[in-house]
Design a protein that fits this description.
One of its GO terms (molecular function) is methyltransferase activity. InterPro entries: Methyltransf_25, SAM-dependent_MTases_sf. Pfam families: Methyltransf_25 (PF13649). This is Methyltransferase domain-containing protein. Keywords: Methyltransferase, S-adenosyl-L-methionine, Transferase. By secondary structure, this protein is α/β, with parallel strands linked by helices. The chain has a single domain (about 40-250), classed as 3-Layer(aba) Sandwich (Rossmann fold), CATH 3.40.50. It contains eight helices and eight strands, in the order αααβαβαββαβααβββ. It has an eight-stranded mixed β-sheet, with helices on both faces. β2, α5 and β3 (about 105-110) form a beta-alpha-beta unit. α1 (about 10-15) packs antiparallel against α2 (about 20-25) and α3 (about 40-50) packs parallel to α4 (about 70-75). It starts with 8 loop residues before the first helix and ends in a 7-residue tail after the last strand.
Length: about 260
């Protein structure tokens, strides 16, 4: 499935019937050959959008997987890049494919994003495609931990893309996936938390602001616009303190989720 180097349907089924942690351990050797890995154009667009907000010294890739996010972070951070993930299998792949020597220095930490072991350690945190693994009730703790891990003035950034309309086949594909996962989790333990449509952007932004962040939305221009003129891709930038950057728009009142 997904080509000769990707996982088979049977391997994906075994993964889905496992815990999230063990499932990703199993998927790790073939993860980069699936659509679940964030595409390079998205990584490059995020790095380009964040570059004017720097310079940054130390960066964290939250839920780093096999380390794809270390490449844009290495372009932005001068001293160190850290990846954290709770899958040992994913981190093993990351260590093999990303050299530790810098600058910046690259290191990997096995840990839970909901209980970050850092205090005031970073001025930039990024995350790519991780929000489907968090339930709505986990966001307050997640964002409180992120804010504690950031230095004053530090930023947490992640890309978001306009969801498909109900008239698009992708809408029904994602909705169907979520429905199957809900049935699976109702029948089997431990649950495999991975939902594409469980969290709405508006709710995420509200929780960020409630946690004490100043939240901004920046357009990722390389992904074009929808028929109604709204951007297909945007970058959420949550700042630990301070006023919005010049040229950015505050999130309030500007989100359609």
């Amino acid at each position: 499935m997904f080509g000769p180097e990707g996982p088979t349907l049977r391997e994906l089924a075994v993964q889905a019937l496992s815990s999230v942690e063990h499932g990703y351990d199993l998927l790790a050797p073939k993860f980069d050959h699936t659509p679940f890995r964030t595409p390079d154009p998205v990584l490059d667009a995020v790095a380009e959008a964040l570059a004017p907000l720097g310079p940054f010294t130390d960066g964290l890739d939250l839920c780093c997987g096999t380390g794809a996010g270390s490449r844009p972070l290495a372009r932005l951070c001068r001293r160190s890049v850290t990846g954290i993930d709770f899958s040992a299998g994913m981190l093993d792949v990351a260590r093999r494919r990303v050299p530790p020597a810098g600058p910046p220095r690259v290191s990997w930490v096995r840990g839970d994003a909901r209980a970050l072991p850092f205090t005031g350690a970073f001025d930039l945190v990024v995350s790519f495609g991780a929000f489907g693994h968090f339930l709505p009730g986990e966001l307050p703790g997640l964002f409180a931990g992120l804010r504690a891990a950031l230095r004053p003035g530090g930023r947490f950034a992640f890309p978001v893309f306009a969801p498909p309309r109900p008239t698009h086949p992708g809408f029904w594909l994602l909705s169907g996936f979520d429905a199957v996962m809900r049935v699976r989790n109702a029948l089997r333990r431990p649950p495999f938390v991975m939902y594409y449509r469980a969290l709405r952007l508006g709710a995420v932004l509200e929780e960020l602001e409630r946690a004490g962040f100043t939240v901004e939305l920046r357009v990722l221009p390389g992904f074009g616009r929808r028929a109604d003129g709204s951007p297909r891709g945007r970058l959420v930038v949550a700042r630990n303190d301070g006023a919005p950057e010049p040229g950015a728009h505050t999130a309030a009142g500007r989100v359609n989720s």
